[in-house]
Design brief:
By secondary structure, the chain is an alpha+beta fold. It has 18 helices and 32 strands. The strands form 8 sheets. Strands 1-9-10-11-12-18-16-15-14 form a 9-stranded antiparallel beta sheet, with helices on one face. Helix 12 packs across helix 18. The longest helix has 27 residues, at about 745-770. The radius of gyration is 27 Å and the shape is globular.
């Protein structure tokens, strides 16, 4: 048990770290960025916009045939500014308040204080809202008029659109408009065009503060949906709530931060950068399911980006990748969000199972079995990669394995049986394994290989035996067996036999290794004198957690760091080098890579870009939430040292340079929620949610195994520990603990052996019983 003195110390520190510093979540500027790309988003996973721009995008609304598919632009009907030409402007300020999920513009004139507040309602997700508050501080005798300038731009070229003015009574004495129509061209020639319905209050040209009135607040609302009744119901409800909408919206954002976040102490700049990474991702994720429109997934630019800005060249970085879903969601964005907000991770997986049937057609079209997911996924699940990109989609098939790995990590973290039994999770795992089973080629030396691919490094394509692709495919082949064994799923004889074949094929997978130089070549005949675009082989160590000796891990990091393009896209590059060096105890090298990520954060509102913005580079995709996800991974899995195994959560925290202390607040793991506080020399684990049916233990501490109790912190010197969660009365646990002084790689190897034997024996029993 912890000593009294240590408990007193940690209770003091816990209470000291408990309060969220709201100022860390606010960014203020006297001006907006001249480049509108770097204006921050407001969004809720259903609708989103960048502030003071003329465009709104909605989840799932795409226009364009096949590879020309991109997010369909909706005019920003309640976006407006105030013109103060009839008054003297004394001061203005723009504030992004991430804690409350709002963007504010303050104006102070010789007569008035004016605040414009813009937000996408966090729980009433159809709604975009702009609220204006006017307060006078001169005499009350005069009428004061201010002039409004709407910012909804031209009609959308993506929509066939009709407009209808509503009666006054329809909108509670505010003039309302109803717009309805459909996209011009669906993704498939024979598909029904997606519909859109928008109800909104009309923004007037002027507002008058009457004499005798000190202040007034007016709220302008736009409601968006594929379904007319849904859009209208949300609009009417919003009109009734009126000025109270802001209060309920803030409460939902506050709850989101309370459920999970990262607290940084002693470094406000870092704290704000990390808050911005969270905010930019969360603004594109729904907090609940939409009964009308399922979640379609995350593009690299989030929900507020992805329109056809440059029609002559659809897709690509300049068009923020058209809002298409890449491996970025499964590999870079989902894992850190999953640790704090697991329900959001399930929706990301749902964006993949949603197109599973089309993925099976994709595989059949290409001559394979199973499911082949597109490199770029938009509305339907067909391959939406633009044709000018060449054969990228033909080669970059690792995305299908990335999806399987995301599912595996989700199961490790949450033990969510419903995704297996109700949400097609097992079916997707089996179909992905079938694809890889049919995609590999047998060799003469009893191995299988994968030819003609492209790994994460996009400078090299049509290569053979990409080591990242091969190992990830191996894990995909093993996943159905793991699921069946772990969850005791009943399967028929055919599937049981298939799963054993998957395992056999996985065990024969060729994984390139240079014994002389003790490193992993990226692919056959790879030349280390060249250059690579982004991290590739380094991803074997993390996130794939392939068992390897420490000196091999070091060699991979050193050799590939030297040849990685320093001006390339930050698609997990510097974050994964940070994680790798921390894993090896090389704190200075880790921090050097950690700092590299901040080049891509654009001031003043902390908007991420794909590449550093320079005179020579426009920065690629903006609001690049892939980079935001990488930054969060470097904290959670790097400095936090979290590792999800099939049987435990490993925790190996480190201090972050330039901070005094820091916290992972609200780590969700198998039904338990804990805070992990990291100080100079000590770590405390504090359970804030612990259902009675669960028993949680920490092992690896010199004092032996300790049981975690609700609101009773466990304190220890910095070291590797493991957490196990077990149902009371059950011998099987979702998290088992071994002696945590073993290396991570040795433990990973043990996991593979244990579960391979487990489900192989189980399937043999199933087959025997069927005979």
């Amino acid at each position: 048990m912890p000593t009294i003195s240590s408990l007193v110390f940690v209770l003091f520190m816990t209470s000291g770290l408990a309060a969220l510093h709201e100022e860390d979540y606010k960014i203020a500027s006297d001006t907006l960025p001249e480049d509108v790309r770097f204006r921050p988003p407001i969004g809720n996973g259903h609708v989103a916009t960048n502030v003071f721009t003329d465009t709104v995008y909605m989840n799932g609304l795409y226009n364009g045939l096949e590879d020309k598919s991109s997010r369909a632009r909706i005019p920003a009907y309640v976006a407006f500014d105030i013109n103060m030409t009839n008054d003297v402007l004394l001061k203005q300020k723009f504030i992004l308040d991430m804690y409350n999920g709002v963007f504010l513009k303050y104006l102070q004139t010789s007569k008035l204080n004016v605040t414009i507040t813009s937000f996408a309602h966090r729980s009433l997700f159809n709604l975009l809202v702009t609220q204006v508050n006017i307060i006078r501080y001169d005499n009350l005798e005069d009428n004061i008029t201010v002039y409004l300038s709407g910012n909804y731009g031209k009609d959308s070229s993506d929509l066939i659109w009709k407009h209808q003015k509503l009666n006054e009574s329809e909108s509670d004495n505010q003039t309302s408009m109803y717009h309805y129509g459909q996209i011009r061209e669906p993704e498939l020639p024979d598909a029904t065009p997606s519909k859109l319905h928008v109800y909104h209050t009309v923004v007037p040209d002027t507002l008058t503060l009457p004499s005798g009135t000190e202040s007034m607040t007016l709220t302008y609302i736009a409601s968006h949906s594929n379904d007319q009744e849904d859009a209208h119901r949300a609009y009417r409800n919003a009109l009734r709530l009126g000025n109270h909408l802001l209060t309920s919206h803030k409460q939902e954002w506050n709850k989101l931060w309370e459920d999970g976040r990262i607290d940084i102490y002693g470094n406000k700049i870092l704290a704000t950068n990390i808050a911005a990474a969270f905010y930019n991702i969360l603004s594109s994720l729904p907090t609940k399911d939409d009964p009308v429109t399922p979640f379609y997934g995350l593009g690299p630019g989030g929900l507020s980006r992805g329109g056809l800005l440059y029609p002559e060249r659809p897709g690509g970085g300049r068009n923020d990748y058209a809002g298409h879903v890449f491996w970025d969601m499964d590999t870079w964005i989902m894992p850190p969000i999953m640790m704090f907000h697991p329900a959001m991770a399930s929706r990301m997986l749902g964006a993949r199972t949603r197109v599973l049937d089309q993925a099976k057609k994709n595989a059949e079209r290409d001559g394979y079995t199973g499911a082949k997911f597109p490199w770029e996924q938009a509305s339907t699940g067909i391959e939406a990669t633009p044709r000018w990109a060449g054969n990228m989609s033909l080669y970059e098939i690792h995305v299908t394995a990335d999806i399987a790995y995301g599912l595996r990590q989700y199961l490790y973290a949450g033990n969510d049986v419903s995704i297996i039994t109700e949400a097609r999770g097992l079916e997707m795992a089996i179909e992905i394994a079938r694809f890889w089973y049919s995609r590999v080629t047998e060799t003469d030396n009893n191995t299988v290989e994968i030819l003609g691919v492209m790994g994460p490094d996009e400078y090299h394509f049509n290569v053979n035996n990409s080591v990242f692709t091969n190992y990830n495919a191996k894990l995909s082949l093993q996943l159905p067996g793991f699921i069946i064994g772990r969850y005791n799923v009943s399967v028929n004889e055919t599937i049981a036999a298939e799963v054993i074949e998957f395992e056999a094929k996985a065990n024969k997978m060729l994984i390139l290794f240079d014994k002389r130089r003790q490193y992993h070549p990226q692919y056959e005949n790879f030349n280390l004198s060249g250059s690579i675009k982004q991290s590739d082989v380094v991803l074997l160590g993390y996130p794939l957690m392939m068992p390897m000796d420490r000196h091999v891990r070091r060699n991979d990091l050193e050799l590939y760091e030297k040849i990685t393009d320093a001006q390339g896209p930050d698609t997990g590059t510097w974050s994964m080098h940070t994680v790798g060096w921390l894993e090896l105890g090389e704190d200075e090298k880790a921090y050097k890579n950690f700092r590299m990520m901040f080049r891509n954060i654009n001031e003043p509102f902390k908007v991420f870009s794909e590449k550093p913005v320079t005179k020579e580079s426009y920065g690629g995709c903006v609001n690049f939430i892939t980079g935001a996800g990488g930054l969060l991974q470097s904290i959670v899995f790097g400095y936090g040292g979290l590792r999800l195994h099939s049987d435990r959560l490993e925790i190996n925290p480190k201090s972050i340079p330039t901070t005094t202390s820091w916290r992972l607040k609200g780590i969700h793991y198998n039904g338990v929620v804990v805070n992990i506080d990291v100080h100079n020399d000590t770590v405390s684990i504090f359970a804030v949610k612990l259902p009675r049916r669960l028993k949680v233990t920490i092992s690896g501490i010199k004092a032996g195994q300790l049981e975690v109790r609700l609101n009773d912190p466990i304190v220890f010197k910095k070291q590797v520990v493991s957490m196990r969660v077990q149902h009371e009365g059950s011998k099987d646990s979702s998290v088992t603990t071994t002696a945590a002084n073993k290396s991570q790689t040795t433990a990973s190897a043990a996991d593979d052996i244990h579960f391979t034997l487990y489900y192989t024996l189980l399937l043999m029993l199933i087959l025997t019983s069927l005979c």
